[in-house]
Amino acid sequence: MAEHIQLDVPLSQVHARTVRAVTVAICADLGYPLDVIEDLRLGVNEAVTVLADVSDTVDGRLTVVFEPAASQIAIRCVRSGAADALVLDDLAERILDTVVDRHHVTEDAVTVVKQIPSLEV
């Protein structure tokens, strides 16, 4: 599967609900199991929470890129327009370690990756 889906919203905690809803919709459309969908919803929520924890960012943006593949999905959350340093505290680290298979943090992005069990019956 070579396609990706991109969502762009203002950088604010207010839009975390939108990102979670889109995450659930995309994963449901792809036929992912409910436990995988819930794990991804929680992981994306944590990524957005960390990225949007900034002081005054009038023009800040959050771009979320969903990159599904045959055996996994990567969801990259990238902020722009924020000068604050990205800090992933111990609790956020533990949450991500629990709900996704891998995560990667850079100065302006959090990527979460979840393996998808075979959907064949």
List keywords for this structure.
single chain, about 120 residues, alpha+beta, Heat Shock Protein 90
Q: Give me the secondary-structure category.
A: alpha+beta
DSSP strand (E) fraction? 25-35%
Give the H and E element order: EHHEEHEE
How many domains is the backbone divided into?
1
What's the CATH topology label?
A: Heat Shock Protein 90
Termini, distance in Å?
20 Å
Poorly predicted ranges: none
CATH architecture heading: 2-Layer Sandwich
- Helix proportion: 25-40%
Largest sheet: 5 strands, antiparallel
Mean pLDDT: 91
Strand order of the largest sheet: 1-2-3-5-4
The number of helical runs is 3
The global form is: globular
Molecular structure report:
The structure is a single chain. Helix 1 (about 15-30) packs antiparallel against helix 2 (about 35-50) and helix 2 packs antiparallel against helix 3. The chain has one domain (about 5-115): Histidine kinase-like ATPase, C-terminal domain (Heat Shock Protein 90), CATH 3.30.565.10. With about 120 residues, the protein is an alpha+beta fold. Strand 2 (about 60-70) and strand 3 (about 70-80) form a beta hairpin. It has 3 helices and 5 strands. The protein has a 5-stranded antiparallel sheet with strand order 1-2-3-5-4, with helices on one face.
